[in-house]
Write a structure and sequence with these properties.
Rossmann fold; 214 residues
Length: 214
Amino acid sequence: KMDDDDDDIPQLSSHTLAALQEFYLEQQQREGMKTSQGFNQYSIGSIEEDWQLSQFWYSDETASCLAKEAVLAAGKGGRIACISAPSVYQKLKERDGEDFSVWILEYDRRFSVYGEEFIFYDYNHPLDLPEKLLPHSFDIVIADPPYLSEECLQKTAETIKYLTKGKILLCTGAVMEEQAVKHLGVKMCKFIPKHSRNLANEFRCYVNYASGLD
């Protein structure tokens, strides 16, 4: 009989349904806030983390500190490249009106909302870059390789060395110190970067110049 089939349809518990409704309501409110408040597309969290892409945004304080360091290191009229470090890019864009330019190299195409400053980047193809990114054309390159593996660091390092005039600011795990020295000649700073969600791995910054992060 047809009506017996209804018993086979899985039913969500009232608790699960309530949690789902709350989740969707929060999402709607968040979207509503974005449109009603003259939403700042450059604020950290405006594009949410995708953990499947190993994305973990910096805390506001850390992103601000790294952005400030990048501007100082780049100098007046400087060019800054952010490789897989979108929260630093976003903080740099909040410093609108200052004399520097910045590009974002990122695998996640959601960041294409940033227009011509967005460059699609896959670390597996480190030198597959558009012609407009000339070699050694950036005063500083900031990079945060998405994975704590030597392969990922080594390939990202190829991109960094191709783009930078000299200065490098690398953010990665403390466990990668030996590989960071080997592939980029950087040293660990005293400054400890924090993320908006606490990570299990200890994170550190590395530079190859006299920085304000010590």
